[in-house]
Amino acid sequence: MSSTKERLVIIGADATGMSAASQARRLRSPEELEIVAFERGDFTSYSACGIPYWVGGAVDERDDLVARTPEEHRERAIDLRMRTEVLRIDVRGRRVLARDLEAGKEYWTTYDKLVIATGARPLRPSLPGIDAPGVHGVQTLGDGQALIETLERTEGRRAVVVGAGYIGVEMAEAMIQRGYDVTVVNRGKEPMSTLDADMGRLVHEAMTGLGIEMVNDAEVTKILTDDDGRVRAVATENAEYPADVVILGLGVRPETELAREAGLPLGDHGGLLTDLAMRVRGYEDIWAGGDCVEVFDLMSGRERHIALGTHANKHGQVIGSNVGGGYATFPGVVGTAVSKVCDLEIARTGLREKDARAAGLRYVAVTIESTNRAGYYPGAALMTVKMLAERRTGKLLGVQIVGREGAGKRVDVAAVALTAGMTVEQMTALDLGYAPPFSPVWDPILVAARKAVAAVRAADEQPS
Amino acid sequence: MSSTKERLVIIGADATGMSAASQARRLRSPEELEIVAFERGDFTSYSACGIPYWVGGAVDERDDLVARTPEEHRERAIDLRMRTEVLRIDVRGRRVLARDLEAGKEYWTTYDKLVIATGARPLRPSLPGIDAPGVHGVQTLGDGQALIETLERTEGRRAVVVGAGYIGVEMAEAMIQRGYDVTVVNRGKEPMSTLDADMGRLVHEAMTGLGIEMVNDAEVTKILTDDDGRVRAVATENAEYPADVVILGLGVRPETELAREAGLPLGDHGGLLTDLAMRVRGYEDIWAGGDCVEVFDLMSGRERHIALGTHANKHGQVIGSNVGGGYATFPGVVGTAVSKVCDLEIARTGLREKDARAAGLRYVAVTIESTNRAGYYPGAALMTVKMLAERRTGKLLGVQIVGREGAGKRVDVAAVALTAGMTVEQMTALDLGYAPPFSPVWDPILVAARKAVAAVRAADEQPS
């Protein structure tokens, strides 16, 4: 324990920043460590991932999404300064320039240790009409609030969602839940480009089955407005889609302007680069985590940008432990993600076919259909599992799942197997839980693994 | 490919036997391999695990539980002889003595390769009244049919289930579904002795909450009958429990009389001992699998008897591959099991505290409460996870879960981690699927792993 009191400054008071603050506080008393956190917005520690469910009505209140309020943080001796934006990081001077947005006042404050948790900003293409009333992003609680207010004010019943990734499909569900006619305009060949197109096709079909109009291979060229300047349609090169409200779900980019200006190392995707302990590379006393960093992909051996609350929380936990004098690491990700559109569950982990090709791997891909429960058990429903394995070695490379209840979280078995470097042959012997309400006697993951083993063997018998 | 036609004889035409037959047939044509299967009962390839759901009414028809009928097997060139019991195995003569139960005719038939898949028989204590009308086991489809006929004939509304393991709790659910008042009489301190008692306690409380009367620490001394000789109550040393029907759920023992008489090697639990390829130890041409064998427990390094359909099917698959000229293995189990009582899900894998003690391991045990979904998401419900880790190494030893929807199959993550030999520290970094409808931002397994890490560290700081 140091006898000199240290000062920890945190930029951004959401998942990563406040997890780091809380964990550091657990390890170090206010006498040992002063913690100052700056947040330019109105909220702390909220679940951005929950916004679609709030808009859709499954979650009642905005505050349900707030895990911990500013007051709760302050009770734990964290000097949290809301509506205060950090304008500059002076690395040599170990200080940051902050601006109190209410008072309009700027001031420098010093740090011994700095955590950058500035998150991500949504992609917002510079299209004609993009700023028209009725066009909404859904990145922040404020965005969600603005959208809900629009929906409550508007008579309209037609929504166009731009983008068919996680946010896009979740917002399509939300608008269906609100009784809207929904069109999803998607640049890709199929929705969910985090899946291979054959699996994305299943999502496409299910969404069409839910009454959602899916427009693939389409680039939005402009947002059309009415005489009042309000949105009335979304235009692509080939068509116009009438819209009372437009929701942008085009993904996000790391919010790293501050870091860039401070000369901190950024990766190819614009995210901060850190070491295993979430320390910014080359900097002893600066940590970063959450949506503003790139994460190491254990499968490809490369850095990626993945904005996901579960990573952000882990990063915060790791940073807080290290800042607090312990030692913790974040080894990387295998690329697991799960989502749903109404009762359709969508999950993936590891490499897609195009990732495997890009990595120069020779692989086999198999797809099987099975059910979530024993076929005779009530509620048994189809599930499609696609599995990739390396040729020769049989090493598991990736799994994609599309199905009904109980399908999505099955991807976790594959995520652990990937982390452990298992072969598909080893996977066929996995002792997974079986009872008729939970699984067929061969769990779908085992069925896929068996087929993958056969494919690996068959591929070995062919000339390479 | 051999030019001499071989003859495969299979004793027992259920999960293991017929999986072996089917897989062998896939690999070897009828010109290469003749397959003869003997079944003393009336059914093939059925899901015994489904019987409670058939009795409870979730599954409509007996035949829903039959995966493949005798006719379907015969269409695949399998010479299936129903209602034919094998009376003796002559290992030296490579032949078996069969008895056609209909014709009353006995005959010897030779084999080149033999598969023993004789299953298990239910424990049936020799108590006064145990054979009275109204006392039922639920091991076979015939048992299930007999019970359902009794229930349809009987006016009564009081059921006593003897035993509180998987079958016991599932049958308690089934009888609740049928509108009965249910009492479970259990020898153990808490139900589900495959869990530690603290977790069993949660099952106890939930079952009580469902209106099931739980009687623990109680040994049945006799079955009391009325003047007609029909069951009227179950007696323990201390009390009598009125019963219109009694269901025995006391577990099973390997059915290995034939094997024992033939001099084949049996283990401490009475099951056949096999090698990794499911070959009976020391015998070149005899395989065995399913409920009549002991399986290798990867956690304890010892043989156990676990009657479970998923193992039986894997064994059959492995045997069929090996008999058919390929090579496959069954490395062992980590002891995963999952079950439910109404909406309470119960799961376990690996070692309990008493197993860890018996193995001479020094361990820490932690228990956490979390939810199946994000706390704010509709349907979020409590889940309790208990995790054991080895002191010093931090190696995961076991996980037990009791909770609502989505709790049970989470045990699979731990099953894979056990198989891979992961530490709880490694588990904290697992990239598990997260979205609010599927998990809190920290999956309950991760929360448990974090607490286990802290416990391992704290234990290290204490004198050992």
From TrEMBL, chains A, B:
Kindly provide the name given to this protein in its UniProt entry.
Flavoprotein oxidoreductase
Please give the SUPFAM superfamilies that the UniProt record associates with this protein. Answer: FAD/NAD(P)-binding domain, FAD/NAD-linked reductases, dimerisation (C-terminal) domain
Q: What cofactors are annotated for this protein? A: FAD
Q: Which organism is it from?
A: Streptomyces anatolicus
**Membrane spanning residue stretches:** none
Please give the family membership noted in the entry. Belongs to the class-III pyridine nucleotide-disulfide oxidoreductase family.
Tagged with keyword rRNA processing: no
Q: Per the record's keyword annotation, is Repeat included, yes or no?
A: no
FAD/NAD(P)-binding domain location is 7-315
Domain called Pyridine nucleotide-disulphide oxidoreductase dimerisation: residue spans: 339-441
Q: Which Pfam families match?
A: Pyr_redox_2, Pyr_redox_dim
The alphabetized UniProt keywords are: FAD, Flavoprotein, Oxidoreductase, Redox-active center
InterPro entries associated with the record: FAD-bd_OxRdtase (IPR050260), FAD/NAD-bd_sf (IPR036188), FAD/NAD-binding_dom (IPR023753), FAD/NAD-linked_Rdtase_dimer_sf (IPR016156), Pyr_nucl-diS_OxRdtase_dimer (IPR004099)
Phylogenetic classification of the source organism: Bacteria, Bacillati, Actinomycetota, Actinomycetes, Kitasatosporales
